[in-house]
Design a protein that fits this description.
Blueprint: H1 3-33, H2 38-73, H3 81-104, H4 106-113, H5 119-132, H6 135-151, H7 156-180, H8 192-215, H9 238-263, H10 273-307, H11 311-338, H12 340-345, H13 351-365, H14 368-383, H15 388-411, H16 417-444, H17 449-476, H18 488-512, H19 518-527
Helix pairs in contact: 1-7, 1-10, 2-3, 2-4, 2-5, 2-6, 2-9, 3-6, 4-5, 5-8, 6-8, 7-8, 9-15, 10-11, 10-13, 10-14, 11-14, 11-17, 11-18, 13-16, 14-16, 15-16, 17-18
Membrane topology: Multi-pass membrane protein
Subcellular location: Cell membrane
Organism: Microbacterium rhizomatis
Length: 533
């Protein structure tokens, strides 16, 4: 196996382990503070803020300046030491200033994202935010260090460091349960010590994540010193280099802000920020495993064909990749739909909360397959160095997300508000996919839409009986009142049984329909099994 192949295996394994330990982290956190409640939503808002702020910084600073230039300067006589020293000094200063300002503005930011929180809930969220905002600095250092390590072909630390973060968080959340008890979803009884343990744990995990990369820094062979002479770093090119991608992130963050503000009205006894976040985590699991692992390989091939001007082969790549992703994700959608309640029970503390969370998950699932199509279409535009067109159809999606969230606030009662917002987001994504596909089809003079649409319909025909048998299995095993919704462990077992039955039926019906995509898909799975080449 080549060095690049070994790196791909290591990165893939690290990503999978990171996802699994991330799920365990969420399970323990839910055990500590619940999924439906004022305290859990206050923590979710506070702990999400650093990610939202860093997403904007990382696009404006990292994507615009650091990532494109680190590889370029590595060929300099000094190995890029002078440039990287300037870069690290500038980046660290920007991150420190941003983290300090965000920490000072914590009360305003929490109120901005959750205007309908009660006074006590805002106070608790602000207390958490004071502990969480310093994460901005360490997220940034992790990105700075990681991108430099990757540029030097040292891939493993960047991929595996988040796993250490997850274990630190799990340990801290377990300590919280031991010291203060479990399911602290209400506002009653919260003390400064409890806030310190919970908020401090979240931040310490990010600190350790960045620290792990520092342990590997010597392998780069670069000696970095503070250098405040920033001339030549490329500040005047930030707007041009980041361009449409930066604006796309801004639009997405604004849409997320509106969603958070609207759903804050449901916080308390209903599904709100925490449930939406956990439902999205479940939703993204098949997307990240299937789309990112399989689709990325297709994107590499597609990019090579685009650069070479072989447009006919690009059209074939688009159709082939959508069919391949579709055969997995249509079945995955059916399996997740029938396991929505037990899967949601893994991240909730009782049956009622699981049912509410399952409703949100089902509304997100409407867009799972369309988002896979979008992945291919969007990256085809990127292959032709076009980020302007994706910005405009993403802006359309963001506008529809905002409008649908406002409509949900007017139409849905609090107990269904989170589901209404999720459904609106799925609708916005479907419209985005339709527009993006039309634009790409026009640009390339056709992308065989009919062929891959017929394949998706064929997959859906096989998925319907699979979903029916899966749901029947869930009902026969007790349904929502049964054993698989009685505890987290049994929910995992139940999800695996019902989902497994559904997938087996799906594969069987694809075989009966003689779907030509089935054998290549199964072969793709076999090649990724341990010991295969």
């Amino acid at each position: 196996m080549s060095s690049l192949g070994r790196a791909s295996v290591i990165i893939g394994a690290g990503t999978l382990v990171s996802r699994v330990t991330g799920l365990l982290r969420t399970i323990v956190l839910v055990a500590a503070i619940g999924a439906v409640g004022k305290a859990s939503d206050a923590f979710t808002v506070a702990n999400t803020l650093p990610n939202s702020i860093f997403a904007i910084i990382s696009t404006g600073l990292l994507t615009a300046v650091i990532v494109p230039q680190i590889v370029r300067v590595s060929a300099d006589p000094d190995g890029g030491r002078a440039f990287i020293s300037k870069l690290f000094t500038l980046g660290t200063v920007v991150l420190i200033v941003t983290a300090a300002i965000a920490t000072a503005a914590s009360p305003w930011l929490v109120q901005l994202y959750a205007p309908d929180f009660t006074a006590d809930q805002l106070a608790l969220g602000t207390a958490f935010a004071y502990w969480c905002m310093p994460q901005i600095l360490f997220y940034g250092l992790y990105a700075l260090l990681g991108e430099t390590l990757n540029a030097r072909r040292i891939f493993t630390p960047f991929t595996w460091a988040p796993i250490v973060n997850n274990f630190v968080s799990i340990a801290g959340f377990v300590l919280f349960i031991v010291l203060f008890g479990s399911d602290r979803s209400g506002l009653e009884g919260w003390t400064p010590e409890m806030v310190t343990v919970l908020g401090g744990t979240a931040t310490v995990g990010i600190v350790v994540q960045a620290g792990v990369l520092m342990l590997f820094w010597r392998r780069t062979g670069i000696h970095v010193r503070p250098d405040f002479r920033w001339r030549g770093v490329g500040l005047n090119q930030i707007g041009r280099l980041a361009g449409w991608t930066f604006l796309m992130v801004i639009a997405g963050q604004l849409a997320g802000l509106v969603q958070s503000r609207v759903v804050s009205a449901a916080s308390g006894g209903n599904a709100a920020q925490t449930v939406m976040g956990n439902a999205w985590l479940i939703f993204m699991l098949p997307y990240s495993i299937i789309v990112l692992s399989i689709g990325t390989a297709y994107f590499t091939q597609l990019s090579e064909h685009a650069v070479a001007g072989r447009h006919d082969e690009v059209r074939g790549d688009v159709a082939r990749s959508i069919r391949t992703l579709g055969v997995f994700l249509v079945g995955g959608t059916a399996a997740l739909a029938v396991t929505a309640i037990p899967a949601s029970r893994i991240f909730t503390n009782n049956r009622a909360d699981a049912a509410a969370a399952a409703e949100v998950l089902l509304c997100f699932l409407v867009a799972l397959v369309p988002l896979a199509v979008l992945f291919v279409v969007q990256r085809t535009f990127y292959a032709y160095n076009d980020t302007r067109t994706p910005f405009f159809f993403t802006l359309l999606q963001c506008v529809l997300v905002v409008v649908s969230a406002w409509i949900a606030a007017a139409v849905f009662p609090p107990q269904h508000l989170a589901a209404g917002i999720a459904l609106g987001q799925s609708f916005a994504s479907i419209v985005q996919v339709i527009v993006a596909t039309w634009l790409l089809n026009r640009r390339l003079g056709g992308i065989a839409v009919g062929s891959w649409m017929r394949a998706l319909v064929r997959f859906a025909i096989a998925a319907l009986p699979a979903a029916g048998v899966g749901w029947l299995t869930f009902v026969l095993l007790g349904g929502i009142e049964g054993w698989m919704v009685s505890s987290t462990v049994l929910a995992v077992v139940g999800t695996m049984i019902v989902g497994g039955v559904s997938m087996l039926v799906y594969i069987g019906f694809l075989a009966l329909l003689r779907a030509p995509e089935l054998e290549p898909a199964l072969d793709l799975v076999r090649r990724r099994l341990p010991g295969r080449r």
